[in-house]
Design a protein that fits this description.
CATH topology of the largest domain: Aldehyde Dehydrogenase, Chain A, domain 1
Largest sheet: 7 strands, mixed
Number of domains: 2
Distance between the termini: 71 Å
Radius of gyration: 24 Å
Number of strands: 20
Number of helices: 15
CATH class of the largest domain: Alpha Beta
Structural class: alpha/beta
Strand order of the largest sheet: 12-13-14-11-10-16-17
Helix content: 25-40%
Length: 462
Amino acid sequence: MIEVRNPFSNEIIETIKIPTNVKIENFFKTSEEYYKKKFKKIPAYQRAEILYNVAIKIKENTQELANLIATEGGKPLKDAIIEVKRAANTVKMSGDEALNLNGHQLTMDRSAGTENHIAFSLKESIGPVLAISAFNHPVNLICHQVATAIAAGNTVILKPAEKTPLCARKICDFFYESGLDKDALIYLPITGQQTQNILNNPAIRYVSFIGSASIGWQIKKLVNPGIKVMLEHGGTAAAVVDKSANLKNTIPSILKGAFYHSGQVCVSTQTTYIHSDIYDEFLEKIHEGASKLIVGDAKDINTDLGPLITPAVVEKMKYFVEDAIKNGARLVLGGKELANNCFETTILTNVTKEMKVFTEEVFGPILNLIKYSNIDEIIQEISDSNFAFQTAIYTQDIDLAFYFARNVEQKACIINDSTAFRVDWMPFGGFKDSGFGTGGIKYAIEDMTEEKLIIIKNNYQV
């Protein structure tokens, strides 16, 4: 059984029965058979119609879904509402992309003997997708993994996060109500250990995973040879604040990037480098802004930071702070555990690159501040990280902005906005320990297809 708890009150919301191993095996057989016999033949316009209907249902149930996100996932209600609105758009845009899965024609008369050939490609679905999701965006991430797979013409076995399976189940219900057969989308609430045991199932043709690097790389090892894998991990996202930055806009952006969902986001701003000329002013303003953030019950519309997902994460935050202070960091705000699985908004200064709070992914409400004067040293320091996801620079100097963007070794560089900036249609993912492959609606759909080449020899002589 999986106990679903409210991370703030620790109350059990619901207990979910875990399917037996025999039933799990049958789920995979069902998914594969339904894909081969029926779903791969369903035309794009019908898949798009289902997705459009799901998007409408999500939009119509915004408040209910937002309350569920806040209750089981601990995300503040005002942010949960925004997540639901994004999810509706994610599904709608997946429907749009389902209608634009185009191949291309190849020029064949580029050498002697090939001039009587015509060649073109078609995009075909890949087969059953195993989607393993995360707790921190329990509606929109589900939509990213499921809607894109359906748009591509694949069946899906959905393994939701153990902490937030109710949001996933609700989204599945919307798909069923919109005309999708239950054999095309199988809801599979199982434990992490059970998940390891199914990764080599021969029915799986693609694995979509969102979660920690340690688990992601293990998944890549356990799947069968030739199976496509998309891994979205996390990182130690760094932002740079140049001396020309507009602090009026920069401070709120960094506060949001660092403390949104209590820092439990894969691209949360973990470290901010501030030019020495404006460091003191920046520190004063970021301290003032962070001090005003409200920590508490996620279901309260005024809450800025809700609870951390488990007590173990709270203990991890305490360890990061204690270790940093022991090694010379200065605690300028927060650093303490609060009631109801919450942790204070925390700011550390005098942080060095040898500290665990710098090198490891924190995934919590801790922001490191580092003074700098040489931009090349900072570019090198960010590039030396084991993670490579998103970084940001705040500056009014366009030459500096492009110099930084072109030289820093990260998957994406955001100029004058947060490391946590994302729109659902942009390419999204990391490399090094931050992951493998690229997500985002269009990019995920394309990755869940195979391009089939068709060549015709024409014996007609011109």
